[in-house]
Amino acid sequence: MKMLKLLLILTFLCGIVYPLSITLISSVFFEDKAQGSIVYRNGQAAGSRLLAQKFETPAFFHSRPSASDYATLSSGASQSSPTQKVGMEKIRRRKAAHPESGVDAWTESGSGLDPHISPQNAFSQAKRVAAARGLNIDQVKNIIIQKTEGATFGIWGQARVNVLELNLSLLDSKGLDGFTR
Amino acid sequence: MPRNDVLTLLVYFITLISLSIPLGYLISQVLQGKPPAYLKWLIPVENLVLKFSGTIDQEQKARSYLKDLLLFNLMGFLFLFVILVTQGALPLNPQNYPGLTWHLAFNTAMSFVTNTNWQAYSGEASLSNFSQMVGLTTQNFLSAATGLAVIAVLARGLSRKMDGRVGNFATDLVRSIIYIFLPLSFVFSLLFVSQGVVQSLADFKIVTTLEGAEQIIPTGAAASQIAIKQLGTNGGGFFGVNSAHPFENPTPFTNFLQLLLILLLPVSQVFAFGKMLNRPRQGYAILFSMFLLFIPLLGLALYSEHTGIPEMGALLEGKELRFGVTESTLWGVATSAASNGSVNSMHSSFTPMAGLVFIFQMITGEVIFGGVGSGLYGMALYIVITLFLAGLMVGRSPEWLGKKIEAYEIKLALYALLIPGALILVGVCLAAVMPWGLSSLSHGGPHGLSELLYNFASTVGNNGSAFGGFAANTPIINSIFGLCMLIGRFIVIIPVILIAGSLGNKKTTPASAGTFPTDGVIFIVLLSGVVVIFGALTFFPVLALGPIAEHLLMLAGQTF
After folding, report:
1. How far is Cα B264 from Cα B331, in angstroms, rounded to an integer?
2. What residues have CB less than 8 Å from B286, skipping those under 6 apart?
3. Are the C-beta atoms of residues B55 and B170 closer than 8 Å to each other?
4. What mean pLDDT is predicted for residues A15-22?
5. Of A21, B2, B56, B151, which shows the fewest CB atoms inside 10 Å?
6. In angstroms, what CA-CA distances link A23 with A27, A30, A34, B484, B508?
7. Which of A90, A103, A88, A67 is nearest to B550 (CA)?
8. Residue B517's CB: how many other CB atoms inside 10 A?
9. DSSP string, B55-109
10. pLDDT at B242 over 60
C-alpha cells in the first residue's frame, strides 16, 4: 500500500506537474519553437524549418535521400549495413549519377527527415536550379553562400545548408527578366 | 579527422569531468540526507511526498529494502502496462491512437521500468501524450532513481561496521528525484525547447509544402521527456528514430548537451561513491579503469568510421549531416557504454568495427561508466571478482575496504555476471535457428548474426538501442525481449543489494602491509583487464562470426 501511494504521488509529480509546467513555460517564452518551428509563406504554413520536405522538380534544391520517403508518421532510416547488397547498390547508383554531389547526397539520413545538405551538394545542384528558374548561376551560388551555416562556435556540427530556407529564398529572388517565380 | 572534431572531443571530456565533480558531491550529500543550502527550498516537497506515501524514514535491512524496491517496480510495471493498453480511452490523445497490443504493452512497460527503453513502437505514430507523459516520462525518473538507490545501498554496506541496515528505499528514491533528477531535467528541458525541441499538447499541424504536398508536423510533450531520457540513462525517444529526429535533437548544440547528459550521471556517481565511502581515491581508481577501457574503444570506433569502406571512404548512411561522422560516433560509443541507448544515428549502418565496439560495451555489462546506478554497481561486481582473483594469486583472502569477501559474495557476483551472458548467447543461438528469429532479420551474411547479438545484448544489458532493421514488434519477440530486460535488470540488482547487506554485517579490518590497495595502479589495470578478459572469453567466438567476419568481408567488397 505504501509503495502504491508512493508510485501515485511520484507519477503526479514527474508525469503531470513536471511536463505540464515545462509546456506552460515553453508556450510563454518559446512558443514558435515549442510548436515545431513552422515557416510561413504568404500567411500560409509552408513547413517546419527543422523537417526535410520532398523536392523533386528541377527548380528546387533537393533534400538528402530518405528511406521513408520523407514521411513524418513515422519517419525512418534504411538501417542498411556496408555489406548489405540492396543498400550498397543504391549508394553506388546515386554516386554514379551525381559524382560531384558528395557523400551526403548518396546516402540516406538517420531520421529520414534531415533538413540539411552539405554546401558541396548544394553547389552541385546550382546549375540545374538556375536553368530551371531562369536565374543567373552566380546569383544562385550567392544564395547558397548566404544560407551556409558553419560549426556552432567553431566546435559543434558540420558546414550545412537548410534546404527549405534555401528554396524559400529562391522563391524571393528576381530572375534575369526582373520577375520572381 | 578534421581539426574541429578534435576540439569537439576535448571540449566534451573537459566539460564532462568538470561538471561531474560538483554533481558527484551533490549526489553524495543528497543520498546522505543532507541537501545543500541552495536546494533547501525543496525540503517541504520531500516531506509532503514522504508523508503522503506514509513513509517513516527508518533504516531497513537489505532484504526489506529489496522487497520494497521490487514491489515498487512491480507496481510501476502494472500501472504502465494498464496505461498503454487503455490509452484509447484516456485523455490527451489528439490523434486518437488505440491501446497497444498486449505483447507490445508488455514489452514497452518492461522496457521503461527496467531503464532499458527498448522501442518496439514508434512514438509519434502510436502513443498518446498521456502515455508519453504520465506513463513513460514518469518511469524515466523512477527507473533511474531506483538505480541510484542501489548505489547508496552499496556505499552504506561498504562503509558501515557490523550493521546490516542499508537505508530506506522510499527516502532514497524520493530524495534523488526531488533534489537531482527533477531540477536538472527542468533546466535542460527548457534549454532544449529554446533550440527547437517540440513541447506542445496541440493537435498535429498539417502544412502544404513548397511543391504542394501535404506534410503532417508531429508534436507532443517531447522536451520534458528528452531531458530525463538522457539524464537518467534511459534513452527512450519521443520519436521512433530517437535523437536523430530533428524535433528531438535539432542542433549541434542540443547534440552536445544530450551527449553530456548521457555520461554526466554515470561519471558523477563514481565521484559520489568515493565521497560516500569517505575514500575519494576509491572513486578516482574506478573512474581511471573506466577511461582506460573507454578511450581505446572510442579510438577504434572513430578510426573505423573515418576510414569507412574501401571504395568511397566514410559514409553518412543513417547519419544526420548536422552531426557528421565524429559526433555520431562519439554518441554511439557513449550511449552503448552508458546503458543509455538513445541514438543520433542508426547503429546498424555503422562500419562493422564500430558496431563491435558498441556490442562489446553492452556484453561486458555496461560497466564502462554504465547506467545511472547500474554502471557502478555492475563494476562493483567486477571489483569483487578482481579482488578474488588477486587473492588467489597471492594466497590471501580478499578484502574490499576492510570487508572480507567470502564465498557468499563471490557466488552472488558470479550469478550476476554469468547469467546475463548466458542469456545473450542462448538467445542468439535460438533466434539464429528458429523461424521467429530468422523471419525478423533484415540482413543476410554476418551482419544478420550481429543484428541478433546486438539486440539480445541491448535488451539483456538494459541498453535499449538497436540494430534497427530487425522486425521486433511480433508477439514472440516482444515477449522474449521483455523477459530478457526483466532478468537482465534484476539478476544484477538483487545480488548487489544482498552483497551490500552481507558486507555491512561484517567488521572492518584495518589495512595492514599485506592488504591489496584498491586505489592504486595495479588495481586499476587489473580491474580493466578482468572486464576485457571476461568479455573476450565469453563472447569472442560470436564476435568473430559477426562483426569481425563482416569487417573482413567488407574489405573484400563482398555484399549479401
Report:
1. 13
2. B270, B273, B274, B376, B379, B383, B527
3. yes
4. 97
5. B56
6. 6, 10, 8, 35, 51
7. A88
8. 12
9. ------BHHHHHHHHHHHHHHHHHHHHHHHHHGGGSSS-TT-PPPPPHHHHHHHH
10. yes
B115-139: pLDDT as tens digits: 999 999 998 899 999 999 999 999 9
The CA distance from B18 to B147, in Å, is 23
Residue that has been written with the C-alpha cell 528558374 in this structure: A133
- The arithmetic mean of pLDDT across residues A34-56, rounded, is 95
- List the domain boundaries for chain A: 36-171
User: Given CA atoms B396, B400, B401, B403 in this order, what sign does their dihedral have?
Assistant: negative
**A131 shares contact with chain B (CB less than 8 Å):** no
CB atoms within 10 A of CB B140: 30
Q: What is the pLDDT of residue B65?
A: 97
Q: Which of residues 67-126 of A touch B (CB under 8 A)?
A: 70, 72-85, 87-89, 91-92, 95, 103-104, 106-118
> What is the rounded average pLDDT of the residues B86-101?
94
With CA atoms as reference, report the closest residue to B201 among A16, A44, A47, A48: A16
Q: Which of A14, A85, A170 to mutate to test the interface with B (most CBs of B within 10 A)?
A: A14
- Express each pLDDT in A136-160 by its tens digit: 999 999 999 999 999 988 889 989 9
Average pLDDT over residues B400-415: 95
The dihedrals phi and psi of A117, each to the nearest 5 degrees, come to -130, 165
Instruction: Classify the C-alpha dihedral B316-B321-B327-B330 as positive or negative.
Output: negative
Instruction: HSE, CB side, 13 Å, CA atoms: give it for residue A84.
Output: 21
Q: Please say if the pLDDT value at position B320 is more than 70.
A: yes
Mean pLDDT for the stretch of residues B515-524? 92
| % of chain B with per-residue pLDDT over 70 | 100
C-alpha–C-alpha distance, residues B499 and B384, integer Å: 10
Give the closest of B200, B208, B309 to A46, CB-based. B208
- Identify which of B173, B143, B167 has the alpha carbon closest to the alpha carbon of residue B153: B167
Mean pLDDT of A150-177: 88
Cβ neighbours of A157 in B, within 8 Å: 251-253, 255, 322-324, 327
Per-residue confidence at B93, pLDDT binned at 50, 70, 90? very high
Q: Hey, what amino acid is at B542?
A: V
Residue A134, CA distances (Å) to A121, A137, A163 in order? 20, 9, 19
Q: Which of B215, B231, B447 to mutate to test the interface with A (most CBs of A within 10 A)?
A: B215
State how far the alpha carbon of B286 is from the alpha carbons of B49, B269, B280, B376, B501, in Å.
Answer: 35, 11, 10, 9, 22
Spacing of C-alpha B92 from chain mean position: 29
Task: Check whether B208 has a pLDDT greater than 60.
Answer: yes
- The C-alpha cell that represents B548 in the structure block: 569481425
Residue B183 forms contact with A (CB below 8 Å):
no
pLDDT at A180: 57
Question: What band does A176 get if pLDDT is binned at 50, 70 and 90?
Answer: low
Phi, psi of B482 (to 5 degrees): -60, -45
Please answer whether residues B334 and B262 qualify as being in contact, where contact means their C-beta atoms are separated by less than 8 angstroms.
Answer: yes
ipTM for the assembly: 0.96
